[in-house]
Design a protein that fits this description.
Layout (H helix, E strand, L loop, with lengths): L1 E7 L4 H11 L7 E8 L2 E8 L2 H10 L6 E7 L14 E2 L5 E7 L4 H10 L10 H14 L5 H11 L4 E7 L6 E6 L6 E4 L4 E4 L11 E4 L4 E5 L4 E5 L10 E2 L4 H6 L5 H7 L1 H9 L19 H6 L2 E6 L1 H17 L3 E6 H4 L10 E7 L5 H12 L3 E6 L5 H4 L3 E4 L12 H21 L4 H22 L2 H11 L4 E6 L4 H15 L2 E6 L17 E4 L6 H13 L4 E6 L11 E5 L7 H18 L4
Parallel strand pairs: 15-16, 15-17, 17-18, 18-19, 20-21, 20-22, 22-23, 23-24
Antiparallel strand pairs: 1-4, 1-10, 2-3, 2-4, 5-6, 6-7, 7-8, 8-12, 9-10, 9-11, 11-14, 12-13
Helix pairs in contact: 3-4, 4-5, 8-14, 8-15, 10-14, 10-17, 15-19, 16-19, 17-19
The structure holds fructose -6-phosphate.
Fructose -6-phosphate binds next to α10.
């Protein structure tokens, strides 16, 4: 991940691509690169750090060409270095690729290619893509670039956005979108065309945009484009005219910012793991946290303090810290904690979770804790905010700006951040073995795809929204690691739609709230197949006994639940540590659809 820009036309691509990347700088990155084709050769410039380094390189060693691709990268596989920066070139020097996403099966593909004699220059998963395209072109498609790209795309597991260019056919580039690793926009110009991961990159050149759908592939020349599915079916794509005002421009293909941000979550979690998770070895690198083995072993307690959505994120984090690092963890409303007389010492970490990094109650709570000798960490989205500046250690969410009123991708990324901190703590404290580290890192690599898969159920969720949009009260239930998601689901519905909603740990129902349930108060219950599945089934039965209408979020393939719940929203099967992150996406989607009335 992170930003992609491509150009084909009559102008020199290099300045256009570099300017496009500059407009994506807000997303963050650790290295950047650009490639063009000139006189039948691929020319590349790449560098670590800020774009200015790349610009300087291009200035001292100029390249030019009327077809070019560029990329800003958050490292996901391999350290940030020139060698690992995109674009990546195939061993035979024919193809060059930029890519956003995580190739979940890259090790398997790399082994396969290595056994066929392919040698790799980088540690990235992206290089597997370009080598595989070249391999298919050479051995299976008789040099046909479109077919080689299509066959390669069909073999990739995970959510991806890819742009590929071939030095033998410099009159075209190919863009592919698989899953929801972020969008791919085609910008339609006059005798020139553009591609970008984000429309601000190319908005200066054209307002006519096409957004590729999941599993679409576009073959783009200077004055044409052809879109087909990866199965080879032609796609008649709609051209969107992006309005001149900056709000419409920022919203792009989405109806409102919340919807956009919900759909950005798969990409946001990829960016938050970028440069931090070694998916092969299981190492977790959190430089700014300033955590070493001595500190990890000394910590006797973590107190998470936060407000609103960030507080609910902390409730999930408690499970991560206790289960994986075996550290006693408390979660406190910052607005209450700041007025308490808490018991703390120098072995306590107070962890502030805050998207803005400026929430007054949260800042006051951590200040109070520090006065009493505790150390402060923060999980924060806004770079340079008070919660980042004043912390002894911090982890940035890298979620990008949140414009929608409700926090969505910041919540998701803060969960991933806490999971990474808990894994690092567990590694240093010896509560997680090397094998478990690799296992969890591999689970994390699946997260963008899993979130993306939920978002693909939008049509099914729209159908549900038509049934429920007139109800005035909702109840959200969950258990274990998913009970905070019930609280968060209820908060989101209240905040966005002004519809009354309550969230409860399902086991609490029998202690009073069950009295609320009747046919006018639909119950949304997370009942995925984990250790507490049977308990949830029994709670669903109790709701049904009170004439409740139950919508269950369940594991794909669970047909039994259809006999218990009135409606079922399926999510993919996954490790239970990931389930809060994925389950919430389905709640967010249903809420955003109810609110926008986009089903009408
Ligand atoms: C809900 C929401 C709020 C914030 C809360 C804390 O969608 O956005 O509940 O989570 O105000 O804000 P931060 O995380 O900026 O401290």
């Amino acid at each position: 991940m992170c930003g992609i820009v491509g150009y084909i036309g009559h102008r020199n691509a290099v300045p256009l691509v570099l300017d496009g990347l500059q407009r994506l700088e807000y997303r963050g990155y650790d290295s950047a690169g650009v490639a063009v084709i000139h006189e039948g050769q691929i020319k590349i410039r790449r560098d670590v750090g800020k774009l200015i380094n790349l610009r300087n390189k291009v200035e001292s060693g100029p390249i030019e060409g009327t077809i070019g691709i560029g990329h800003t990268r958050w490292a996901t596989h391999g350290e940030p270095s020139e060698r690992n920066a995109h674009p990546h070139v195939s061993m035979n020097g024919d193809f060059v690729v930029v890519h956003n996403g995580i190739v979940e099966n890259y090790l398997e593909l790399k082994r396969e290619l290595t056994s066929e004699g392919v040698t790799f220059e980088s540690d990235t998963d992206t290089e597997v893509i370009v080598q595989l395209i070249a391999h298919h072109a050479q051995h299976h498609t008789n040099g046909d670039m479109v077919e080689a790209t299509r066959q390669t795309a069909l073999r990739l597991r995970g959510a991806q956005a890819i742009v590929v260019v071939n030095k033998h056919t410099p009159d075209r580039l190919i863009a592919v979108r698989i899953g929801n690793a972020g969008g791919v926009a085609l910008g339609i110009g006059n005798g020139e065309n553009f591609v970008a991961s984000d429309i601000p990159a190319i908005l200066e050149y054209t307002r006519k945009m096409i957004f590729l759908d999941h599993a679409d592939m576009a073959v783009v020349t200077a004055d044409s484009y052809h879109i087909q599915t990866l199965q080879g079916e032609p796609v008649d794509a709609e051209i969107h005219e992006i309005d001149w005002d900056s709000v419409s421009a920022g919203r792009g293909e989405f109806q409102h910012f919340m919807q956009k941000e919900i759909f950005e979550q798969a990409r946001a979690v990829t960016d938050t793991m970028g440069g931090r998770v070694d998916f092969e070895k299981g190492d977790i690198l959190l430089k700014e946290l300033n955590l070493d083995e001595a500190l990890a072993k000394r910590i006797s307690k973590i107190v998470i303090t936060a407000c609103g959505t960030s507080y609910y994120s902390g409730l999930v984090g408690k499970f991560f810290f206790e289960q994986l690092a075996r550290v006693n963890t408390e979660v406190e409303y910052a607005s209450e904690y700041r007025y308490r007389n808490p018991i703390l010492d120098e072995n306590t970490i107070v962890l502030a979770i805050t998207q803005s990094g400026e929430t007054a109650d949260t800042l006051a709570a951590v200040a109070e804790a520090r006065k009493r000798g505790a150390m402060m960490w923060s999980v924060v989205n806004a770079i340079g905010s008070a919660a980042m500046r004043t912390a002894d250690g911090y982890v940035l969410m890298n979620a990008g700006p949140e414009i929608g009123v409700a926090s969505t991708k910041a919540f998701t990324t803060s969960l991933v951040n806490q999971l990474m901190i808990a894994l690092r703590l567990g590694q240093l404290r010896g509560t997680i073995s090397a094998e478990q580290s690799v296992f969890f890192a591999q689970q994390l690599s699946q997260l963008p795809r899993l979130i993306g898969q939920v978002l693909e159920f939008e049509d099914q969720i729209k159908a549900l929204a038509t049934v429920f949009h007139n109800y005035k009260d909702f109840l959200f239930l969950g258990r274990g690691i998913n009970y905070p998601i019930a609280l968060e689901g209820a908060l989101k519905l209240k905040e966005i739609s002004y519809i009354h909603a309550e969230g409860y740990p399902a086991g609490e129902m029998k202690h009073g709230p069950i009295a609320l349930i009747d046919e006018d108060m639909p119950v949304l219950a997370i009942a995925i197949q984990d250790d507490l599945y049977e308990k949830m089934i029994s709670q669903i039965e109790q709701a049904k006994a009170r004439n409740g209408i139950v919508i269950a979020v369940a594991t794909e393939g669970d047909t039994f639940i259809q006999s218990k719940a009135d409606h079922v929203l399926y999510v993919p099967a996954m490790n239970s540590f990931l389930s809060p992150i994925v389950s919430l996406a389905s709640f967010e989607l249903i809420i955003s659809i109810i609110v926008s009335g986009s089903f009408l």
